[in-house]
Specification:
InterPro entries (chain A): ATP_synth_F1_ATPase_gsu (IPR035968), ATP_synth_F1_gsu (IPR000131), ATP_synth_F1_gsu_CS (IPR023632)
Largest sheet of chain B: 5 strands, mixed
Structural class of chain B: alpha+beta
CATH superfamily of one domain in chain B: F0F1 ATP synthase delta/epsilon subunit, N-terminal
Organism (chain A): Nelumbo nucifera
Number of strands of chain B: 10
Number of strands of chain A: 6
Helix content of chain A: 55-70%
Radius of gyration of chain A: 33 Å
Subcellular location (chain A): Membrane
CATH topology of one domain in chain A: Pyruvate Kinase, Chain: A, domain 1
Strand order of the largest sheet of chain B: 2-1-9-8-5
CATH class of one domain in chain B: Mainly Beta
Largest interface: A-B, 61 and 57 residues
CATH architecture of one domain in chain B: Sandwich
Shape of chain A: elongated
GO molecular function (chain A): proton-transporting ATP synthase activity, rotational mechanism
Oligomer: heterodimer
Helix content of chain B: 25-40%
Largest sheet of chain A: 5 strands, mixed
CATH class of one domain in chain A: Alpha Beta
Order of helices and strands of chain B: HHEEEEEEEEEEHH
Strand order of the largest sheet of chain A: 3-2-1-4-5
Shape of chain B: extended
CATH superfamily of one domain in chain A: ATP synthase, F1 complex, gamma subunit
CATH topology of one domain in chain B: ATP Synthase, domain 1
Keywords (chain A): ATP synthesis, CF(1), Hydrogen ion transport, Ion transport, Membrane, Transport
Strand content of chain A: 5-15%
Distance between the termini of chain A: 25 Å
Chain lengths: 322, 200
């Protein structure tokens, strides 16, 4: 009540104290809910704009998180169902990541879209380390890249080593036919002794493990089988069908590559959605915290401006009283 | 981000409780230690990536006497049709003809042609039409059949089979390039196999 009376008095004094030009300047930065004559010295407009944009960002990231969660649910089922696909091959041929061959091809699987946390950087880091690990005198290592993000990172320093790069893999829902055509393409155009597929295996919504799956060419399989070790039992297997053992092994290697690639692509897509979900979740939480801080700043600024105005009015009034 | 991990995990487990991951990781994860050590020597800063071996149950060794049942794993790209199922016999359509697999079968790698796969368990026989793939029979009486596409026989429509056979036979006669001839031949093979599967 007293405040309202003081404010009215202030309004009567303000036109006397300030000149027209100052009034005009004040009106230009005045906020909507104040009358033009009651212009306040400190403006809350800047803080208010920031709050609005942060709130919008929070809404957007929350929506992206929901979208990623629903996509994850759909693709997780398919990824889990495809997990049985590579196990027979590993049971038969074993797993020999430390095989020593001349021509290595590193197949890096990544996503096309960003905002998915650190999974693409992890894949690229592992691929680059693998390149370093498999390099040596008389050996050559090449890249085959699936996905826009890995291409962007690898093209910077390994441009001459990239054989094929494929993008927009997930334009249509992933299916085995598409992946087998892709695998056929890669096998036709790239000479290889060992194919090393680098992807993120989906473990749970918060954990993704960089994984390396190795597929050997039929010649290397024969060589390793003769040398003994993990593949030594291969000779014990009878071969049914086909003209020669070599032909069967060729078909086997191609089939294995397409199966392993299918599982790898599904797992990576799963990991991408999971990583995007947690990235967007933490982003919206950060936006919420930022909004809280901004609200406090806004209230402080608003209260300070009211106090300043009161002081001006009261000091003006007391000056007139004498 | 890591502060939120317990909360995210709790939320994740509540969302995903229906899907458990116990089938994926074995009880004692084995890893290729020689690979990990060789990796660490060259690249000490980055952890070695995991390999498929650490995600698989190790297979049992060959038993001294022939076991009574055959363990069958029948996998497709989008589903594991049979996972570690104990059966009496499996008849697989290898390229050299129908092959019967009993427990104690010699270790074999067989390429499959389009045909019927039948699983015999006691008096039940389940028949699937398989498009193609591979079958591995291991010495420890475990059979892995990996197929690209498989359907139970009762889901096949005979009318469409006849129509497809007629279509592809016609395409084969009018094919000009080798590629077209090969595609038409494959179509004819699959459809005639489907035909004999339905009638036989």
């Amino acid at each position: 009540m007293a405040m309202a009376a003081l404010r009215r008095e202030g309004r009567r004094f303000l036109p006397l104290m300030s000149s027209n030009s100052i009034n005009a300047a004040r009106s230009s930065i005045v906020s909507e809910d104040l009358a033009p004559q009651g212009a306040r010295a400190i403006s809350t407009q800047v803080v208010r704009n920031r709050m609005k944009s942060v709130k919008n960002i929070q809404k957007i990231t929350k929506a992206m998180k929901m979208v990623a969660a629903s996509k994850l649910r759909a693709i997780q089922v398919r990824a889990e169902n495809s997990r049985g696909l590579w196990q027979p091959f590993t049971a038969l041929l074993g797993d020999t990541p430390s095989v020593d061959v001349k021509k290595n091809v590193i197949v890096t699987i990544s996503s096309d879209k960003g905002l998915c946390g650190g999974i693409n950087s992890t894949s690229v880091k592992v691929s680059k380390s693998l390149y370093k690990w498999t390099s040596g005198p008389d050996k050559e290592t090449k890249y085959v890249i699936l996905g826009e993000k890995a291409k962007a990172q690898l093209v910077r320093d390994s441009k001459k080593d990239i054989e094929i790069s494929i993008t927009e893999l997930q334009k249509n829902p992933l299916n085995y036919t598409q992946v087998s055509v892709l695998a056929d393409d890669i096998l036709k155009n790239v000479e290889y002794d060992a194919l090393r597929i680098v992807f993120n295996k989906f473990h749970s919504v918060v954990s993704f493990m960089p994984t390396l799956a190795t597929v050997l060419s039929p010649e290397v399989v024969e060589r390793e089988a003769e040398a003994g070790g993990k593949l030594g039992d291969l000779d014990n297997y009878e071969i049914e069908g086909g003209e020669t053992k070599g032909e069967i092994l060729q078909n086997l290697a191609e089939f294995q590559f397409s199966c392993v690639l299918f599982n790898a692509v599904l797992e990576n897509a799963c990991s991408e959605q999971g990583a995007r979900m947690s990235a967007m979740d933490s982003s919206s939480r950060n936006a919420g915290e930022m909004l809280d801080r901004l609200t406090l700043t806004y209230n402080r600024t608003r209260q300070a401006s009211i106090t300043t105005e009161l002081i001006e009015i009261i000091s003006g009034a007391s000056a007139l009283e004498g | 981000m890591f502060r939120q991990a317990p909360r995210l995990l709790a939320r994740a487990t509540s969302i995903m409780r229906a899907r458990s991951f116990s089938t994926d990781l074995p009880a004692a994860p084995t890893s290729d230690s020689s690979f990990v050590e060789a990796w660490k020597k060259v690249i000490p800063n980055i952890d070695a990536p995991k390999t498929p071996l650490s995600f698989m149950q190790p297979r049992p060794p060959t038993p001294p006497s022939i076991p009574g049942k055959l363990t069958v794993n029948f996998v497709l790209p989008y589903q594991s049709e049979l996972a570690a199922k104990e059966v009496d016999m499996v008849i697989i359509p290898a390229t050299t003809g129908q092959m019967g697999v009993l427990p104690g079968h010699v270790a074999t790698i067989a390429e499959l042609k389009p045909g019927i796969l039948s699983v015999h368990e006691g008096n039940d026989v389940t028949k699937y039409f398989v498009s193609s793939g591979f079958a591995f029979i291991h010495a420890n009486s475990i059979a892995d059949v990996v197929a690209v596409e498989a359907v139970p026989i009762d889901r096949i429509d005979p009318a469409l089979v006849q129509k497809g056979l007629a279509d592809f036979t016609q395409k084969l006669s009018t094919a000009s390039t080798d590629l077209e001839k090969a595609e038409a031949q494959i179509g004819v093979d699959v459809h005639s196999a489907l035909n004999s599967a339905l009638t036989g």
